[in-house]
UniProtKB/TrEMBL annotation:
The keyword DNA repair does not apply. It comes from Paenibacillus lignilyticus. The modification 4-aspartylphosphate is found at residue 55. It is found in: Cytoplasm. Keywords: Cytoplasm, DNA-binding, Phosphoprotein, Transcription, Transcription regulation, Two-component regulatory system. InterPro entries: CdaR_GGDEF (IPR041522), CheY-like_superfamily (IPR011006), Homeodomain-like_sf (IPR009057), HptR (IPR051552), HTH_AraC (IPR018060), HTH_AraC-typ_CS (IPR018062), Sig_transdc_resp-reg_receiver (IPR001789), Tscrpt_reg_AraC-type_HTH (IPR020449). It comes from the Bacteria. Residues 433-531 form the HTH araC/xylS-type domain. It holds the Pfam family HTH_18. This is Response regulator. Residues 3-120 form the Response regulatory domain.
């Protein structure tokens, strides 16, 4: 029902309005009436009207002042003003209360009916809109935890790039405060459950997830992230008031407490790997992999349940990791679909070294990450790669010999190369044409390969190779060529000086411009200008 309140200082006017219609049949309840604005305000302290029909001129508080005050308390109320001829213009100027209508006395029954019907329509529309907004807000609030966890998962796995502005905007829209201070990456890993694993593990791993989510509130506002079944990541921003040694001790005690509580409440055997990401969320993906390597040592650690990645650093220094020096070569081999070169790089990185199994995993993970990074600009390809092998890092840890590990990594990376080969062509041609267009329109600015690569969301090395493969010249050569062609056109203009032309095509150093021009055309800019003037 719609609640109606009537305000008029004349008893007969109020009675006349009450008797105009069968209000109940219209779905309207008259909840009260008053003889002036003050009396109406007192009557409506605890009752909200939907519609108020009020006279303008009344003793004490008039209708306009009454409406203004009531509107502050009930912002959605609809006002219908009635007034005599002399008050009509004043009433119509009262726009601050957004009245539905201003009706002149004596009231016309049909006009009032139409006005009330319009007010009811607006009320129903507003209530419907409010209901939709409440439902939408509820849906968003329900989905936010899942969206936050998914975004963090994608960041940790390298699917979302943290230097991508869109990623940061998504995090902000989800209400996710990504840490910029040193952050502990803690991986809680459930061990396999034995013979009854298939039936009981899903329920038990869900129990671990729920219990852990309820335990971390004192340490972090970030959600628990399940990166794969039985593996959960907790990111804990480090307290700036604690020394590093104290913080590490606190983290170790916290992790040990979690393991004890979770094992007692769920019956699942657990271990926690910890790595300290010095640059906050920006380095968390790398330290996530380190924490995984650390927790993977549980098999060799006996009764130790909390493991730090720093424990590996000394042994890693005992052998040369060639992966970092081979990254560019591996990217090039993948893009060129050079399967033999891929095999050679992988085997050189993994074989012929005295390394522990965990160290081999570390190298293999780095190789896989380099390969997956070549797909970073194309999310569809990343998804396709994970569809072929949903948990490559976990799969490689099942390899029990260095030879089987190397063979598996070679096959996986060659599969990525095959994906890229199938999806090149038009896409890469479009990227090259886009870069060319940028150079043609912005050659006079400080163009660099890094700035161009950032605009197409690709690695600089990838852009260099892609452009060279498609054009036969390097991107730097193309920029110089574009600048020189435009410089030659400007030098043909008699009024243009050499130093002006240099600045116009992007060179602040005139001497350097002259050297580049002469190297390109075999003649200095001044001689070129003089020769053209003679010919002209």
């Amino acid at each position: 029902m719609i609640n109606l309140f009537i305000v008029d200082d004349e008893d007969m006017e109020r009675e006349g309005i009450r008797s105009l219609f069968d209000w109940n049949q219209l779905g309207i309840t008259i909840i009260g009436e008053a003889w002036n604005g003050q009396a109406a305000l007192e009557a409506l302290v605890d009752v909200e009207p939907d519609i108020v029909i009020t006279d303008v001129r009344m003793p004490g508080m008039n209708g306009l002042e009454f409406a203004s005050r009531l509107k502050r308390h009930y912002p959605n109320v609809k006002f219908i003003f009635i007034s005599g001829y002399e008050d009509f213009d004043a009433a119509r100027n009262a726009v601050d209360v957004s009245a539905v209508a201003y009706l002149m006395k004596p009231i016309n029954k049909e006009t009032l009916m139409d006005t009330i019907a319009g007010a009811i329509g607006r009320i129903q529309e507003e209530k419907h809109r409010e209901k939709e907004e409440v439902q939408l807000k509820h849906q968003v609030e329900e989905s936010l935890p899942l969206l936050r966890e998914q975004l963090l998962r994608d960041i940790l796995l390298g699917i979302e790039r943290i230097d991508d502005e869109r990623t940061m905007q998504r995090a902000e829209s989800y209400g996710l405060s990504l840490p910029v201070i040193p952050t502990a990456v803690m991986i809680v890993k459930a061990e396999e459950l034995g013979a009854d694993r298939e039936d009981s593990e899903p329920l038990k791993t869900i129990a671990v997830y729920r219990e852990l989510s309820g335990m971390i509130g004192e340490e972090t506002s970030l959600p628990v992230v399940m990166t794969r079944e039985g593996e959960y990541v907790v990111l804990i921003p480090c307290s700036p008031i604690l020394a590093q040694e104290d913080m590490e001790e606190h983290l170790e005690q916290t992790a040990a407490s979690w393991v004890q509580q979770l094992q007692r409440s769920t019956g699942v055997t657990l271990a926690i790997g910890i790595a300290l990401a010095e640059d906050g969320i920006r380095s968390c993906p790398r330290y996530y992999r380190m924490a995984r390597t650390a927790v993977g040592r549980k098999f060799y650690s006996g009764g130790q349940n909390v493991l730090w990645h720093e424990d590996d650093e000394g042994s890693r220094d005992d052998f040369p990791i060639l992966v970092h020096r081979s990254k560019d070569e591996l990217e090039e081999a993948i893009i060129a679909f050079d399967t033999s070169r891929i095999e050679q790089i992988v085997k050189t990185s993994l074989q012929g070294k005295s390394m522990k199994k965990e160290q081999a995993w570390f190298v293999a993970i780095d190789l896989l990450n380099t390969a997956l990074q070549t797909l970073a600009e194309k999310k569809e390809l990343v998804k396709a790669a994970f569809e072929q092998e949903k948990a490559p890092w976990e799969k490689l840890m099942l390899m029990d010999t260095i030879d089987s590990l190397a063979a598996w990594v070679v096959a996986y990376i060659q599969g990525i190369a095959e994906l890229i080969k199938k999806n090149q062509g038009n896409r890469n041609e479009h990227i090259v044409q886009t870069i060319k267009q940028w150079v043609k329109s912005e050659y006079m600015t400080d163009l660099t390969i890094n700035s161009i690569a950032g605009r197409v969301f690709l690695a600089p090395g990838y852009v260099r190779k892609l452009f060279k493969n498609h054009t036969g010249m390097t991107l730097k050569e193309y920029i110089v060529q574009t600048r020189m062609k435009n410089a030659s056109e400007l030098l043909r203009q008699p009024e243009r000086k050499v130093n002006e032309v240099a600045l116009a095509v992007g060179y602040e150093n005139v001497s350097y411009f002259c050297a580049v021009f002469k190297n390109f055309y075999g003649i200095s800019p001044g001689d070129f200008k003089d020769a053209y003037q003679i010919l002209a």
